[in-house]
Amino acid sequence: MDKIRIRGGNPLRGTIAISGAKNAALPLMTASLLTDHTLTLTNLPDLADIATLATLLDQHGVGVVRNGSVEDGVRRNVQLTAATITNTTAPYDLVRKMRASVLVLGPLLARCGQARVSQPGGCAIGTRPVDLHIKGLQQMGAEIELESGYIEARAPRGLTGAQIVFPMVSVGATENLLMAATLARGRTVLVNAAREPEVTDLARCLVAMGASIEGIGSHTLTVDGVDRLHGACHAIVPDRIEAGTFAMAAAITGGEIVLRHARLDLIQAVAKILSGAGVAFEERDDGVKVSRADGALIGVDVMTEPFPGFPTDLQAQMMAVMTTAQGAAMITETIFENRFMHVPELARMGANITVHQASALVRGVPRLTGAPVMATDLRASVSLVLAGLVAEGTTELNRVYHLDRGYERIEAKLAACGADIERVRPN
Ligand code: EPZ
Q: What does pTM read for this prediction?
């Protein structure tokens, strides 16, 4: 298995092109199931999760044509054509690889009146149930049974609009029900809907496909079902989590990085917190410049929240940044119950972190030291890369496949800014 080897200590300087957002691309790809016409998505990131979803869609009968190479960047695209859906089962083998596969449930049910989707199990960051997806679809008239590890859903007479009040904010449930509602009979109102930019991107694409959606970007989405959707061409929103991660690479190494294509309005909460820690953000025509010219990082408290709050997907990276800050930082995770898997690995690099329930107290240390490390999820893995960039000596990150799920060519992007980082392939 590949490893990433980093020799820490270089301040990063340069420009990094931010890719299309993984967490927008995945639901957008499943939206192709809603129409028999072609959906074209540009700015497609080149990631393992995208390939997994393409395989799943292919076995539902969707024609998947990917165009463009890595160098094409924003022009890289995928054309998805679900002229005929040949199979409404999402099998265990694919769903267990990637939980976002459950996003085929709403579109398949809305288009075909039936779907059989393997229940995603728990994962490294929490139990992650899908009860809100299921309850919402039941409110829209679906008959759903859980049998032999599968969600068996049927709506022989189609789905009907309903008022669905989410008891908590869920990105995936909002996306699944939003897609289902576009083809339902009548009006669906999603109350306490997620407002994440990836949800907004999906809603905009659905509108381009002929859906009627009001309240995009707000807590309440009102969808008037239509008989059919048509094709569209949609550019995937830039990845705010990738942008935030590289902003933190600039912060932790005391460097200066221009995040090309990044949008400051999507990382406001991150910019605000990092500004308090001594990092400067500047909006530019081509993106956002992030710098920590001089002075030490200062410990700041952070609490994860649904958008527009500080994202849980940047919590691990922020913790890495705080390990060498002056003073202490209290980092509280409110979205997932078990998202501190990076703590023991950061501690092996010399970090001083105490976890009490949902909060981690990080006391800044003068330096980290390189070590062999590994993590069990994507963002925890990248937090170890950030720590490795500033640690003395060599850090070797194992289980790189987690990184490849969500960061496109991360070692090349960091190396172009002066990081001493390489991918080591087994002989
Ligand atoms: C999305 O996951 C993202 N994944 C996650 O990104 C992200 O961490 C998360 O949203 C929160 O922002 C994709 O977009 C593909 P949720 P999702 O439903 O939709 C609970 C990454 O690193 N919940 O908003 O699965 C759930 O357990 C990843 O890129 C229920 O209880 O997240 C969690 O505690 C990981 N019942 C909370 O809600 C449900 O039916 C928020 O989860 C659904 C969710």
A: 0.97
pLDDT digits (tens, 9 = 90+) for 18-68: 999 999 999 999 999 999 999 999 999 999 999 999 999 999 999 999 988
- The DSSP output letter for 185 is B
Strands (DSSP E) along 245-340, which ranges? 256-260, 280-284, 287-291, 302-303, 328-332
Q: Give, using CA atoms, the residue closest to atom 30 of ligand 1.
A: 129
Which letter does DSSP use for residue 120 in this model? Answer: P
What is the DSSP secondary-structure string of 358-398? Answer: TEEEEE--S--B--EEE-SSHHHHHHHHHHHHHSBSEEEEE
Beta bridge partners of 89: 116
Local structure of residue 313 (DSSP, 8 states): G
Task: Say which residues have a Cβ less than 8 Å from residue 357's Cβ, sequence separation at least 6.
Answer: none
Beta bridge partners of residue 406, listed in sequence order = none
Residue of minimum CA distance from atom 13 in ligand 1: 23
Which residue has the CA at smallest separation from atom 26 of ligand 1? 128
H or E segment and range at residue 263: none
Q: Are 118 and 95 in contact (CB under 8 A)?
A: yes
Ligand 1 geometric centre to CA of 172 (Å): 6
Cα 255 to Cα 91, 239, 280, 289, 295, distances in angstroms: 46, 21, 11, 11, 11
- pLDDT tens, residue by residue, 76-125: 899 999 999 999 999 999 999 999 999 999 999 999 999 999 998 767 77
Give yes or no for residue 129 CB within 6 A of ligand 1.
yes
Residues in the chain: 427
Do residues 387 and 372 lie in contact, with contact meaning Cβ atoms separated by under 8 Å? no
Judging by DSSP bridges, how do beta strands 150-154 and 143-147 pair with one another? antiparallel
| pLDDT tens digit sequence for 148-194 | 999 999 999 999 999 999 999 999 999 999 999 999 999 999 999 99
